[in-house]
Amino acid sequence: MKELTKETKARFERLKELYSSAVLAAEGNRERLSQHMEQYLGSDSIDGSPERAGVVRNITYELIESEINADIPVPKVDTSCYSAEREQNARAIERLSSAVRSRLPFEELNDRDERYTYIYGGSVFYVEWDSNQTDNAGEGGVRVHLLSPMDFIPQPSIESVEDMEYCFLHFTTTRAELMSKYGVAEEELALAECEYLADLDDPMGDAVAVILAFYRDGQGQVGKFVFSGELVLSDIEGYYKRKTAVCRECGRQLQSCDCALPDPYYIDGNSEKVRLPDGSEATIPYYVPRDFPIVVRKNTIGDGLLLGGSDCERIRPQQQAINKVESRILQKLLRAGVTPVMPEGTAVSLNNTVFGQVIKTRPGESMASYGTIDTTPDIKQDVEEADRLYDQAKRVLGISDALQGLDAATSESGYARQLKISRASSRLETKKRMKHLAYCKIYELIFKHYLAFADEPRRFAYRDTFGRMHFTEFNRYDFIECDRRGNYYYDDSYLFTVDVNADDQYQSETLWEINLTNLERGTLGDRESPYTLMRYWQLQDKARFPYARENVEYFQDIINRGAAGLVNVEEPPAADITPTVTGGAES
Hints:
- Among the domains are: 42-101 and 311-332 and 377-504, no CATH class; 242-285, no CATH class; 506-586, no CATH class.
- Strands 6, 7, 8, 9, 10 and 11 form a 6-stranded antiparallel β-sheet that branches. Strands 5-4-16 form a 3-stranded antiparallel β-sheet. A two-stranded antiparallel ribbon has the order 1-2.
- The protein is α+β, with helices and mostly antiparallel strands and 587 residues long.
- It has helices at 6-25, 27-41, 59-67, 84-103, 106-120, 175-182, 311-314, 316-335, 380-397, 401-404, 414-424, 429-453, 508-521, 530-542, 548-563, and strands spanning 45-46, 49-52, 75-79, 122-134, 139-147, 152-154, 166-174, 193-194, 207-216, 222-228, 231-236, 242-247, 264-269, 271-275, 281-285, 294-298, 338-341, 347-349, 358-360, 371-374, 458-463, 469-474, 480-482, 488-490, 494-498.
């Protein structure tokens, strides 16, 4: 690697000092986070005692798993100042965010995010622009990473990422990755920080720790610094600024350089020439985001807490108590038994393999001389106490039998059960709102990254409310606005929310039943009309009903033939080809 500049060395020393202080300040919190994960995994430790629980009834795992929500919030974007063009741009942002949401493995991210949030009290998303991504539309794209709060080292005493001057992310990678991604020479690998937790037996193993530092400079611009141990891997002062490669020898941009061995360095690109809708050209400053590329999802709001309150911490007293009670039940049962009572001199033979021993009476001796003492203890009160503690933990978290599906043996419809569960989970609504807030920030960061770096228009396919496929595009040049002074700029003043009425917020079976009910009640129109039936199957197709797409095509063909005068679409189709629309969720 090249010799570090004086500025980079000074920045490295300063960030190392801040990192050490932040790690020290977070030490107590990290211990609590580790304790929460151990509790979720079923730890048998007892607070304040060296003894271990004989039995672990893991109510923490059971209750947290009951809270897991597979729904991924659907983006919804509004304009801060209405115009037809801005409204069209808002829809383009929605479709861009939805396309990225569909392309990235958000199902996997959501699965881990849900557990991290309830266990630790929060989770951490990291959004970055990956220039190595390519598709048919252009180069570069957004990547979203999910990190455990254990790998996020914040600025001490600051409650929100927006207010931080610096923060750190911890990643584990390999020595080979350092060489390929950052150009580290093999002889320099000894300077990297070994990931001891990953390889205790081999401190010079392959796993190494990489620290990403984000900071704000004197102008409020975001910088990024990457290091491992004493090894500097990357130093980017203006993280979001466009970089232009320039040859040190001739001073020209690298693509126009004629040098045999160009020695490139990078300078900030401050502006670009853009062709405006009227055909004229204008020089416009590049769009530069000013946010850290990090989003923290909180479980619930807590005073003085970067993360929210942990569900593990809330029910730890009940988990500890129930482990003690269950251990006591086990001890009682292990000591229980039936003890025989026999006269003195009784001969006992140990040759019965079924019962272990046989008691033989003496000649003329009455069986009444023998008996038993049952020492089986009464554990009824212990069981009742364990159940009482379990109910306490459920009430603390706001979890009901309906949410857990324990009242499934009912005759009510699926839609009615969905409403019942929704009402029962009203105490969990705050957690859902915190999830929505985090995804709003994620979608906003996705938009800002494309506004800053996507030079080519990006095309996306989407399906409208009638089930028809369309193509749209996101073009960052559509967001150019002109202020009162005649200066052009990129407009990022859009309001991000989530669509709480989107289909993803409901189970498919529930939507099937709602659609069928609407058809039967006539709210979609005359149910004998092909137009109504096609609309019904379009809705079912959107709700992923089996073979709905084939039915949409069937009724579309009938309508097309009616338009051509081949059939009378006002008459119902023949009985032998009318699709069955009764059955809903039970189909």
